[in-house]
Amino acid sequence: GGAGFAVAEMLSDEKIKMIVSGQFGLNIMNALESKGIQCKEMSGITAKEALREIEEQNP
């Protein structure tokens, strides 16, 4: 249970496939991955740079 699992359920219902963050806690990462949502940690760059990297890796 917990808030992390509720958030993961909501994001899954919205068909979210990936979450990008500077850092994930273990509980939320487990909750998201249990719903098939990929967790991508990217720190030290802007959101625009992160999006560009993701787009290059997933054409």
Describe this structure in words.
The chain is an alpha+beta fold and 59 residues long. It has a single domain (3-57), classed as Protein tyrosine phosphatase superfamily (Protein-Tyrosine Phosphatase, Chain A), CATH 3.90.190.10. The protein contains three helices and two strands. The chain has a two-stranded parallel ribbon with strand order 1-2. Strand 1, helix 2 and strand 2 (38-41) form a beta-alpha-beta unit. The model has no long low-confidence stretch (mean pLDDT 92).
Task: Sum up the structure in keywords.
3 helices, 53% helix, 14% strand, DiNase_FeMo-co_biosyn_sf, Di-Nase_FeMo-co_biosynth, 59 residues, Dinitrogenase iron-molybdenum cofactor biosynthesis domain-containing protein, Protein-Tyrosine Phosphatase, Chain A, alpha+beta
Order of helices and strands: HEHEH
Largest sheet: 2 strands, parallel
Span between termini:
35 Å
> What is the 3D shape?
globular
Low-pLDDT residue intervals, each spanning 5 or more residues: none
- Oligomeric status of the shown chains? single chain
Calculate the mean pLDDT score and round it. Answer: 92
Q: Tell me the fraction of residues in β-strands, as a range.
A: 5-15%
Radius of gyration computed on alpha carbons: 12 Å
Q: What is the CATH topology? A: Protein-Tyrosine Phosphatase, Chain A
CATH superfamily: Protein tyrosine phosphatase superfamily
Short description:
Helix 1 packs parallel to helix 2.
